[in-house]
Predict the 3D structure of the following.
Amino acid sequence: MRSVERILRILRSFTQRTPQRSLTEVAEAAGLDLGTTRRMLLALGEEGLVAHDAATRLYRLDLGLLELAGAVTEGGDLRSLAQPVVDAIARETGSTTFFGIHRQGEALCLNRADGNAVVLLRWWTLGGRMPLHCGAAPKTLLAFMPEAEAARVLARRLAPLTPRSETDPESLRKELQRIRRQGHALAVDDVVLGVTSLAVPVLARGGHCLGALAITGLTAQLDAEARRRHLEVLHAQAERLAGAA
């Protein structure tokens, strides 16, 4: 079990924002010594899960992980139910669309679809994780999770992603109250400067939050009128997904 935990910590040290790391960086992120990290990276490389660039001396995740991901069954699970909903939102709004869920203290991108906008945004890739205090979808998940869980998140050190990221716990509590009250979240420039996101919760019977549907686009494109139109689409599709789940 100890080896499995170490391997998982190494694999999870690679993120959307840090897709390549040096040996030292992997070791620091995984909380391991250099020798153990090197041995495990070599073993993961032999299995095709990690690649090493001899020129840059950097490690990255390799295609073997995609082969494993392809074995994940969809069946009637939430991911398969959400994909046509996400596709419909992308078509109707023209925006990059996501469905995210809360997973182990972070927001996990379960589904995404690109719209027809001239500029397509590539952040928060499928399977990517985001901190819960930045971005419309993560904040929606945080706002609608049980109060005790949200308190634990706000008690952690909250690192900013941009100068516009809110990291003050009290300010975030007030924002989460506003999100619950109005039923949607708006995030401007707090994940990527110049980018705005809009999200709504998908609520099951009893108020349990299954996840968050979100769109994102250039801030200049998502003005007040566009947000109003897109919110109608998001709410309608959230009801559709909640009814199917």
